[in-house]
Design a protein that fits this description.
Layout: E1 4-6, E2 12-15, E3 40-48, H1 49-59, H2 64-72, H3 78-82, E4 90-91, E5 110-119, H4 125-134, E6 142-150, H5 151-165, H6 173-185, H7 191-194, E7 200-203, E8 211-214, E9 217-220, H8 222-236, E10 243-245, E11 248-250, H9 252-261, H10 264-267, H11 275-288, H12 299-317, E12 335-343, H13 345-359
Parallel strand pairs: 7-9
Antiparallel strand pairs: 1-2, 1-3, 3-4, 3-5, 5-12, 6-12, 8-9, 10-11
Helix pairs in contact: 1-2, 2-13, 5-8, 5-11, 6-8
Bound molecules: zinc ion.
Length: 360
């Protein structure tokens, strides 16, 4: 089970995969080089045409010719294409030469749907429109499906993908998770280069923002370091044992205490004391700021600008109010559009050849 997230350079930077590629490698990859890292998730689902023909001819009682016409228009749902446990006639397999788990059919009966999920937003909208415009239109070779989601759901989906890509038994996952988080936070930076031969990630005592590489170590400003800890916690947490971070295994209470001590909670304006409440606010904060990269000016300046504006507004209403809450209170779950592109090309070709064999 793996999916692939494309990085800006077009190389596979993360891969969870829903099912294995079939032995035939991809001939006609879509080009996602104009998309920031972590904004595309790729799913591959295998489908057995022997099973499909069987369903249409035996269960629905259609003549092979009619079945063929119907099958050609077959449009799976996004759930069918992206859920971890596929159901007949879909299946996931990591084998090089997979067989249908339902009827045992061999390769020539099997085909695949490649599904790409693009996270909508300022960094991807223009590139997505260009990409979609260039896709061939005939025979519905590509389906474009839109789904409404929100920043929280997208964030958890991202964490889930991240978790499936990491080997939590290998300690290097902590560094890998940090890289994935930074790629999401700052897609414009070449993190592959930054993490090349990296041995350790540390909290900087000097930096107030950003990061700095020194030899084999990467130093992160305290706020970024704290966020990396939270991400590591989220990826590895289990109900009984807390989560594993660069600072060892921590329970939620311990994690909250540490990031509070490092000044992170104050910095982002979380004033709650109860760990559960802090946690909820943290999630909203991390989920909502997934487009940090688009904020060109450093975060603090943006916050300042906002409060100035707010001060002016408030001042008109009542001159007595002078203290303003930090910006975090404004953060709520944001709607996010997900754009799915389903590649049906392999499916259409295979249906044709299988029908030829089936009708013969
Ligand atoms: Zn089958």
């Amino acid at each position: 089970m793996y999916l692939i997230r494309k990085s800006a350079s077009g190389t596979d930077s993360i891969s969870v995969v829903k099912s294995a590629r079939m032995a035939t490698t991809k001939k006609r990859e879509l080009n996602f080089k104009d998309f920031p890292a972590g904004t595309i998730t790729e799913y591959t689902t295998l489908v057995c045409l022997a099973c499909i023909f069987d369903i249409f001819t035996k269960q629905f009682g259609l003549a092979p010719r009619t079945a063929f016409t119907e099958i050609k228009h077959h449009a799976p749902t996004i759930e069918e294409l992206t859920r971890p446990g596929a159901m007949r006639p879909y299946f996931d397999s990591e084998e090089k030469h997979p067989h249908c788990p339902y009827c045992g059919a061999a390769k020539r009966w099997l085909t695949r749907f490649d599904t790409y999920c693009i996270e909508g937003g300022k960094t991807t909208d223009a590139a997505r429109r260009t990409l979609v415009r260039k896709l061939p239109k005939a025979d519905d070779q590509f389906l474009i499906i839109e789904k409404k989601s929100d920043s929280r759901a997208v964030f958890f989906e991202w964490l889930d993908t991240l978790g499936r890509n990491l080997d939590l038994n290998d300690e290097s996952w902590l560094i890998e998770a940090t890289r994935m988080y930074l790629e999401r936070r700052e897609p414009k930076t070449n993190w592959e280069e930054m993490f090349d031969d990296l041995r350790a990630v540390r909290r900087s005592n000097r930096l107030t923002e950003g990061w700095e590489r020194d030899g084999a170590r990467l130093f992160l400003a305290p706020n970024i370091y704290c966020e990396a800890l939270v991400i590591q916690y989220l990826v590895s947490r289990s109900h009984a044992h807390g989560g594993v971070t660069l600072e060892g295994r921590l329970t939620l209470t311990e994690l909250v205490r540490r990031i509070r001590h490092k000044g992170y909670l104050d910095q982002i304006g979380i004033t709650e004391r109860e760990p559960g409440e802090v946690f909820e606010k943290l999630i909203d904060h991390l989920a909502a700021t997934h487009e940090w990269s688009h904020v060109r000016t450093p975060k603090r300046q943006v916050a300042k600008k906002k409060s100035k504006k707010a001060t002016r507004k408030t001042a008109k209403k009542s001159r007595k109010i002078t203290v303003l809450q930090p910006e975090v209170d404004e953060i709520v779950t944001e709607p996010v559009k997900l754009h799915y592109i389903v590649d049906r090309r392999d499916f259409l070709e295979k249906v044709k050849s299988v029908y030829a064999a089936y009708a013969a």
